[in-house]
Structure formats: C-alpha cells, structure tokens
Amino acid sequence: MTILITGGAGYIGSHTCIELITASYDIVVLDNLSNSQNTVLDRIKKITKAIIPFENVDLRDTEALEAVFKKYNISAVIHFAGLKSVNESINKPIEYYDNNIAGTINLCKVMHQFDVKKMIFSSSAVVYGNPETVPIKENFPLSTFNPYGQSKLMTEQILNDIFISDNDWQIALLRYFNPVGAHKSGLIGEAPGGIPSNLMPYLSQVAVGKLDKLHVFGGDYDTPDGTCIRDFIHVVDLAKGHVKALDYFKNKKKGEVLTLNLGTGKGYSVLELIHTFQDITGKKIPYDIVDRRPGDIVISYASPELAEKVLSWKAEESLEDMCRDTWRWQSQNPSGYE
Ligand SMILES: NC(=O)c1ccc[n+]([C@@H]2O[C@H](COP(=O)([O-])OP(=O)(O)OC[C@H]3O[C@@H](n4cnc5c(N)ncnc54)[C@H](O)[C@@H]3O)[C@@H](O)[C@H]2O)c1
After folding, report:
1. Which domain holds residue 57?
2. According to DSSP H, which parts of the chain are helical?
3. What is the CATH number of the domain that holds 156?
4. Is the pTM of this model over 0.85?
C-alpha cells in the first residue's frame, strides 16, 4: 500500500515525505517541478536513507496520472500540489484556477476510477477571510478575497460534495496557518523561485545578504506593536500532522470529512518574528515599515484544540526553533537547491 504525495518535491511536501518514511509508510512523489527541483529527493535520501520513487507528472495530464495509479498500488493521496501565492493569483487567476481546481478535479476523477477514496488536502487559513475574533475555530464563517483563497475554498466544497455522493471517502481538509522553519539537518527547507512572497523566506534572504531590506507592510494596525499578527508553525510539526491524519483514517475505517486547523494557537507579530530571528542568528535585519498592503488580515491565529482532540497532535516547536532551523537551512544553502 503506497501513499501518493502530489507536490511532494515542494516545501511542505518534502518535509512530510521524511515524516512518512520515518513512520514506515511507502510513498511515491508526483510533482511537475514547476516550483521545486528534484535535488530535494537526493536530500531526502541523505536524511532517511530511503530511495523515493518519483514521477515527473502534471496533475492535469490524465494519461500520465492514470499510468501512475496503474504502476503503484496507491491507497491514499496527500495532495499538496498547487500554486500558492495570493498576490500572483490576483494577476493570474486563470492559471491558478486551472492548476488548483482543474488539477484537483482530474486527480479526483482518477482516484475514483482506481477506487482510491482517501485524501488529505492542503487547505489554508486563507479560507477564514478576515475573522471577527481569534483564536479561529473550524466552524467560523468562510470567505476569501482572492483567486488563491477561492481555489482552496472551492476545493474544500468539491471534496465535501464527493463525500456526500459517496460516504466511503475519507477526506481530511487541513487548514494550515503560517508554515516556516526547516528540517533540523539543514538539508531541506523553503526555496522559493524569484523574490519570496512570504515573510520568513524574505527575511532569511535579507539575513544571508541576497536581498537588501525587508518591507513590513503596515505599522499602524490595532495590535500591541502596530504590525500584523500570525500563527507561525514549524513545517516539521505540520508534516507530523499529516502522518497523524493518515494514522487516524487507518484506524477508523469509516468515511468522513475531517476539517482541522493546523496551527500553534499562538500569535506573534511581524516585529516579534524579526526580533526573535535577530536574537537567534545574531544577524541584523534592516527593515522599513511601509504602507499597509490591501487585503492583509490583521490578526490570525488558530484554535488548534480540535486537531489535538481528534488526532492527538500538537505543535511542539517554538518560534526560536523556527528561526534557528530556517537560518541553518538558509545559511548552509544561500541559493536554495541550486
Ligand atoms: N506554504 C504556505 O504558506 C502554505 C499555507 C497554507 C497552505 N499551503 C498549501 O500547501 C500546499 C504545499 O505548499 P508549499 O508551501 O509546499 O508549496 P510548494 O510550491 O513548495 O509545493 C507545491 C509543489 O506542487 C508542485 N505542483 C504545482 N502544480 C502542480 C501540478 N499541476 N502538478 C504537479 N505538481 C504541481 C510544485 O512544483 C511544488 O513542488 C499548497 O497547496 C499550498 O497552497 C501552503
């Protein structure tokens, strides 16, 4: 029985591969390498001593996808593959809907064809829009303001509808908060192509001297230091949540849709993150506070209680660990996997 990891060469996918191998799952990685490089597989091999079968396939290529399902005895899919930049999605909505929605529909069709009814999907806190209160619970109202967020919300809806039509499906919708950090080995981490759109990779590229200065969007919000507050979660904690979700379905047998937040339950401001990073690394981070960025949520952090109750999973790594591990990866690999 093999677990198919779509997008397994990417940031969260690669860390999840390691945790799955450690937990003795057999895996196969499928990725079109549009935002990753296959050197990551050599790094995973170095860490785990395991050789991972890899298929360079685009999810929208039905024939190639069917061939993968024919080749391996797939029992479940962890579905990371997708485009993930909010800002880019505003300029390229067709690309985002095609990749994230058409890709997922194609995957579901092939899963249906091969009678594979177990899927863990990478959703996001973006589906909560601008929440009225925090911590954010799974039953809060859902809304989004951009094509990326819409693609997550629509995929959740599609997967819910699939379950309504066939109650044998076991589906986990895991809503990630803000994944940061890297594997303790320093061999794998986040390696965005071009200028990073997320805070932590931007910050670490400033620290390593690849970028001049960090821009903090908005310093006059109604928060203790005026900057936005986020729930940063270590990518290895996040990866372990996926293993727990698979274990849960293995033991459960019955179909259901499990909707869970994966966050720490703690909110840190952008300035707190910068200061912690400086303290841990001893690197001075030059930054400017600039205008607010339209669409930014002011305060977002999870209630992770449901995930703890259902999966017996809890994030363990501190903000200091996240900064230390990010820096180890970034300083040892200033140009990512190149
Ligand atoms: N990183 C975050 O901040 C964050 C937060 C919430 C949710 N998510 C979601 O988690 C998932 C993984 O995110 P990540 O940070 O690891 O991103 P990533 O870009 O590092 O990984 C995604 C991988 O999917 C691959 N891919 C994209 N489209 C594909 C396609 N059509 N066919 C095959 N492979 C394809 C890319 O090459 C890449 O390796 C994404 O769905 C993302 O939307 C990420």
Report:
1. 2-181+232-263
2. 11-22, 39-48, 62-71, 86-91, 93-96, 103-113, 147-165, 199-207, 235-252, 270-281, 305-311, 319-332
3. 3.40.50.720
4. yes
